Amino acid sequence: MPVTRRAALALPVLAAPAVALGQPAWRPTQPMRIIVPAAPGGTADMVARVLAAFLQQHWNGASVVVENRSGAGGLIGTQELLRAPADGHTVLSGNIGPQSIAYSLYRNMPYRAEQMLPVAGVVRGPNVLVVHPSVPANTLPELVAHLKRNPGRISYGSPGVGQSPHLTGVWFNQAVGTDSIHVPYRGAGPAMVELVAGNIQYMWDNLTSGIQQVRAGSVRALAVSTAERNAQLPDVPAARETMPELAQFDVSTWFGMFYAAGAPAGAVQALNEAMRAMDATPEMKRRIEQIGGISLYGTPAAFAEFVRAEIEKWRSVITREGLQLDAN
């Protein structure tokens, strides 16, 4: 259904072409669809609904609908975008999973990176390293020392194999030379319940889902995964601050908009410009702050380069781990 303002408020080189000079500004000539490759309620869904409400106003009452097509780690929703005409009227609210990790994680990927046309990023945010209070570590180096004293005996949780928090843990182990046991759960919530209960010892969790337990004192935060500290936890260091082995460690969970390759250059430019205007609104700034995020807005070329680098980053981590899954 059309998104009301009330509802909204509640590896190949990837590049976008420029608009030819003198061409009239592109506008939708039929209802637009924003495909969310995830269930309602998550960040990808929130981003899509805020954008839909903004576009309806920006384009003077244009019809913009949000469709949730969840399943297969985001692959089903991405395929829905690629089945639609590449005429500028179907957009994907993409993210780190199906638009970067998946290309290396799945043996039988149903689409290729060059079929996606990055338009603009929306928001990125860190994962946070949290430990059970019983773990004898108040800093990340102390945790590493504890893991090295107990190789193969300390367990860490994640919301699922191949998801950003799991692969953050994989890269962490690779970088610092530790060996710990991965325990996947069906979502971040169940993993956090097990951590609070002491059934696992640590995990990397999206800041948005982990910060409540940090503030409650149920778990202890040792580091964030991004290159910089986060304003929501200003006293918690970036992992790369803490050890020389982590100097290149930089992980963001991120969200952005994609067209299918072949979309009109004018549509790419028009959507990017609308997203620039949305990024500057007080409402969007408030939303980003609420989830502990940082704006990822930039030009189509800048977002394409960001996505390309993410694909390469996770290819290296996944290949070194020897991790492969079947898409289903």
TrEMBL record:
CDD domains: PBP2_Bug_TTT (cd07012). It comes from the Bacteria. The keyword Signal applies. Residues 1-22 form the signal peptide. Keywords: Signal. Belongs to the UPF0065 (bug) family. This is Tripartite tricarboxylate transporter substrate binding protein. It comes from Plastoroseomonas hellenica. The lineage of its organism: Bacteria, Pseudomonadati, Pseudomonadota, Alphaproteobacteria, Acetobacterales.
